[in-house]
Design brief:
Elements: H1 16-28, H2 34-48, H3 54-68, H4 88-97, E1 102-105, H5 115-120, E2 124-127, H6 149-156, H7 160-164
Parallel strand pairs: 1-2
Length: 174
């Protein structure tokens, strides 16, 4: 369903949340801060288990994990703005309607994003850099960058926000 709008994607596996949670619990139950944050994350999985749409699950996780990490971010959906157009034009319209001064995108979008459309409305385009991440102790082997934020939370506890907001050179000392 390549052309299906992302906000219409339904979850097909009814027991997905329980399966996810069991995997997380098994992988992290020995983590230093699992006893503190595990129950909160489990409650989150229980809360979203009955959701039908993937976008509802994603939004709930973004909001709850941002709150757990103490990150103060405004989260909105493009439907809050009723944007017009397709692809880059739609993104530009969301930025215009939200009065955004900058748009941050993943590096793979460089191939298709029409930057000039953003600059035409006074919105700068910034490209997300995924690393180098500050390292922290992990349960198994050498530091692995490609993990969930849950790894960071279970391993560093209340220090996690400092890792989210820092560059490798500024990272807290483990």
């Amino acid at each position: 369903r390549y052309e299906q709008p992302i906000d219409e994607v339904e979850i097909s596996e009814p027991d997905w949340a329980d399966q996810h949670w069991r995997s997380i619990e098994q992988a992290y139950r020995k983590a230093p801060h699992f006893a503190t944050y595990g129950p909160k994350v489990r409650q989150l999985y229980e809360a979203v288990a009955k959701e039908k749409l993937l976008t509802q699950v994603n939004e709930r996780f973004l909001r709850e994990l941002s709150a757990l990490l103490g990150l103060q971010v405004r989260i909105t959906r493009d439907s809050d703005y009723a944007p017009q157009g397709k692809r880059s034009e739609r993104l530009v319209d969301v930025c215009r309607l939200a009065h955004a001064s900058r748009y941050v995108s993943g590096p793979s979008a460089k191939e298709y994003l029409e930057e000039n459309l953003f600059t035409d409305i006074g919105t700068s385009v910034e490209w997300m850099s995924y690393g180098p991440y500050p390292t922290y102790p992990q349960l198994h082997g050498e530091f692995e960058h490609a993990v969930s934020v849950l790894d960071l939370l279970f391993m560093t506890g209340d220090q996690a926000p400092q890792y989210c907001l820092s560059r490798a050179a500024d990272a807290p000392t483990p």
